[in-house]
Amino acid sequence: MNTTQHPSLQAKVKAKISIAGAGPVGALLATILSRANYQVNIFESRADFREQKHYQGKSINLALSDRAWRALDIIGATPLVKEHAIPLYQRIVHTQDNSQISQNYGDEQQAIWAISRVKLNEILLAIAEQEPLVNLTFNNRLTHLDFVNGCSVYANHSEHIVKQKEVESDLTFAADGAYSKVRRLAQETPRFSYSQHYMEQCYIELTITANDDGSHKLDKNALHIWPRKHFLMIALPNSDGSFTCTLFLNHDGEPSFSSLQEKEDIKAFLSTHFADVYPMLNDPVEAFCQKAANPLFLVSVAPWVFNNKVALIGDAAHAMVPFYGQGLNCSFEDCREIAELINIHQDDWEQILPAYQKSRKENTDAISKLAKEHFQEISEFACEPRFILKKRIEAKFHKMYPKLWTPLYTMISFSADLPYSLARQIGKRQDALMEQIMLIKDIEKHWQEDFVYEKLKSLVKQESKTFI
Amino acid sequence: MNTTQHPSLQAKVKAKISIAGAGPVGALLATILSRANYQVNIFESRADFREQKHYQGKSINLALSDRAWRALDIIGATPLVKEHAIPLYQRIVHTQDNSQISQNYGDEQQAIWAISRVKLNEILLAIAEQEPLVNLTFNNRLTHLDFVNGCSVYANHSEHIVKQKEVESDLTFAADGAYSKVRRLAQETPRFSYSQHYMEQCYIELTITANDDGSHKLDKNALHIWPRKHFLMIALPNSDGSFTCTLFLNHDGEPSFSSLQEKEDIKAFLSTHFADVYPMLNDPVEAFCQKAANPLFLVSVAPWVFNNKVALIGDAAHAMVPFYGQGLNCSFEDCREIAELINIHQDDWEQILPAYQKSRKENTDAISKLAKEHFQEISEFACEPRFILKKRIEAKFHKMYPKLWTPLYTMISFSADLPYSLARQIGKRQDALMEQIMLIKDIEKHWQEDFVYEKLKSLVKQESKTFI
C-alpha cells in the first residue's frame, strides 16, 4: 500500500527501506520492518507469480523447523502457515534391498514441516501487502546500486517498454536470493571476499502421483529417502496427495547425469536403484531426459554490510546446499535477528547492521558447512548399521538425560535459541565421545544395557560441560 | 619473431598456442612451448614496459628459490638470472628492542635469491623473443574468449584507435596474473567454483636508500624482517644498494592504514616500531601518506582447464599472499609441469591438460594455505623464544639426521622435487612430534643435549615413516 495515500502514517515513519526481492525472506522482512514503523519498498524483478499459471523459480521442496516458526511468530504467521504444511515426524530410509528403516527426527511430537515454496510465499506476501507502510512492485529489475549512498536504479520491463526508476533509500536489503544481483554488483566494491563452490552433485525433480482417491502412496508424515552412497533421492509430500522427489546425482563420472543419456540406461538405473518407488513415479524416464540437471552450489561472502547502507540477507548472503533442510530456516533467522536488534539498539542502524553481520556470519558459516557435510551422512551412512546404532544410543541417552545431551539434528532443527555455530561445536565434541562408546566390545549386543549409558554419562561429566 | 617470415619453420609446427599475458610466467611458458615446436602468440594488454620510464605493475620484490631455478633450467636461463640476483642466506629478525636475531634459511650454502621483477621479466622476454616460433604483441587487451572453441578477440588500444583482432588458437593459456581477465570471463561458464579472499592486511612499499658509495645500509645477503605481531615489515636488497621495504598492516582497527591518517601519528608509529631502520628510510611519512595501501588477496578456482582449449596458469589460477615467498616459484613450477607432461604424453593435450590440472591444483592449494598461515609465523612467532628454540632444535636434528627430518621451510624452498602438498602433510606431522619435544621439562636448558635428539629420533621411527 502506498503511504502517499495515507498522510497520517508519514508522521511516524522512521526511515525508508528498500528490499530487493519479494521471495519469502523479502516478504517476511518487509512485514517486520513496517510494523517497526519503517516505510518499505519491495522490488521484485519477476512478474507476480500469483497471476501466472506456472511458477518460475526455485522449486526444491521446503521443510520448516523451529527456527522458521520462531521467526514467523514475530508476525503471527505460524498458525496460518502450518495449516498449509504437513508435519513429518520421521525419516523413512528405503534401502537398496527394499526394506524400510524409520528414524524419528526428535521426540514423538517433534516434526519438520513440508510446505510448497509457492504457497509459503503467497501467504507471506498477502500479510506484507496488508501493511500500510509496505509498497510492493513487481517487474522491477535492479540495474544499479550505489553502495556508498544507497541509491538504486530499477528497470521496469513490463509491456515491452523499459522504464528506469531511481530510488532513494536510507537502507537497502538484498533479499534477492542465491543468484543475487546486489551481490554481483558488490563484487566491484573494494576488498570484497567472495566464494562460490559447486558441488559434484546436480539435481532434478520427479513426481510420485497421488492415488485416485487423492491419498498419498507413501506415508505422508515422513521424509522418504533412498541413500545410495554416491547418489540419493528424497521425497517430500505435497498437500494434493503427490510427492515431489529430488534426485541428487553427480554431474560427471559413473553414474552421472552425463553418463546417463540413453533411455534404456536411465530406465535401468532408476528401476534398479529405486525399485520400490519406480512404479509410482510419473513417467520418470521422460522427465529425466527432458529436465536439465540443476547445479548445487554454496556461496560465502564478506562483508554482508556496506557503509551501513546496503545489507545482504538470506540466500544472497549465504546460499547453501539443501542437505540439512535449513536454507530457509536460516534465512528466516536472519530476519528474526534484525527484529531483535532493532529492539536492542532502538533503531540505531549504525549499531544494528554491524551486530547483525557479526552474529549471523559466524552462524550461517556453521550451518553451511554442516549442510555440505550432511550429504555424506544421509547418502552414505543413513542405512549403515553402525551409524544407525550410534543414532539409537544417542536418542536413548538423550531421553534418559535430556539436560546432558541433545543430538545435533535436534539442536539444529528444534532448538531455535541455540546458535548454529555453538550447535556445531557441541556436535563435534559429541562425536568424539560417541567414538569411545562405539569402541565398547560387542556394542551391537550390549547397546541397550545400563553400563553403556553410565559410561557415556561419565564421559560427558569428565568434559565438565553439558551438552544441551 | 613472426613465423610467416620463416616458412621453413611452419612444417614442424605442431599447433598454435596463444598466451594472454607477457609477465615472467607468460614469457617462460612461451619459450618452453616454442622449443617444443609450438607456434606461440603472446598478447600483453599493457605497453612494452621496457620502453617506459616507470614500470606499472606489481612490485612486491621477488625471492626465487629452487623451484624457480628448476623451471628456469629447462630453458637454460638460471645462470643469467642469478647474475642479476642477490643471494640471501638468512633471515635477520629486528626485534622491538632493537636487537637482531639471525636465522639461516637452510644449510650454509642454501639461499633464496632477491631479484627485481622488472629485470627478471626483461631477461625472460629477451629469451622468448629470440625464439623463431614466438610472436609477442603489446597493447592488446583480451576482450572476448570462447571457452568452447578457444577463439579470442583482442583490442589494440595504441595510438588512440581501437582495433579489434580475432585470434584462432588450438589452445589458449591465461598467464594474465592475479587480476586475470580470462578468469573473470570464466565466471560465466557453467559450474565454475571461484573464491577470492581478502586479508585483513594491506601493504605499501618504503625505501632504504643506498650509502653514498653505493653500498647497502644493512646486510645485503639477508632478508630483514621486523615482526610486530599484528603488523610486519620486511626488506629485500636491490642491486643498486637500496632496499625495498614492504610494510604489512591491517586495513582497519588499531593500528591500521585507516587509523593512521595524521603525519605526526604516522611518524610516531614508524619511529617507535621500526626505530633502528627509521633513520634510513627515504621520507617514510610522506611515502606513507601518498601511497594507497594495496590489498592482499588469494584466489582459488576450479576448473583450471576448459574443454581442453583454455587453461589458467600462474597467478591467474592461484594468486596467493606473499608471506612464503613462493608465488612466482609456484607459477614457474606450473610451467615445469607443462614441460614434463608434454614429454610424458607426447604432445597429446587431451591428456596433458587434465593431468596438469590434477597435479597442480592440489599442490597450489597447499602452498596457498601455507602462505596464508605463514603470516602468523613471521609476524608473531619469529622473535618468540620458544618458537626460535623449536627452529634451532629442528635445524640441529636435520643436520644430525638429514634423511629423517627436513624442516618445512627447506622442503618448500630447497626441495624442488617434493610436491607442496606432501611437504605440507609432512610439516603437520613434524609439528605434532615437536610439540612432544617441547614438553620436555626445562627444554630451554637441555636442548643441546643428546637425549633430546634420541627422543625425537625414536618418535620419528615410531611413526615408521621418515621425514625427508
TrEMBL record, chains A, B:
Its cofactor is FAD. Gene3D superfamilies: FAD/NAD(P)-binding domain. InterPro entries: FAD-bd, FAD/NAD-bd_sf. One of its GO terms (biological process) is kynurenine metabolic process. One of its GO terms (molecular function) is FAD binding. Keywords: FAD, Flavoprotein, Monooxygenase, NADP, Oxidoreductase. Residues 15-364 form the FAD-binding domain. Pfam families: FAD_binding_3. PANTHER family: KYNURENINE 3-MONOOXYGENASE. This is FAD-dependent monooxygenase. It comes from Litorilituus lipolyticus.
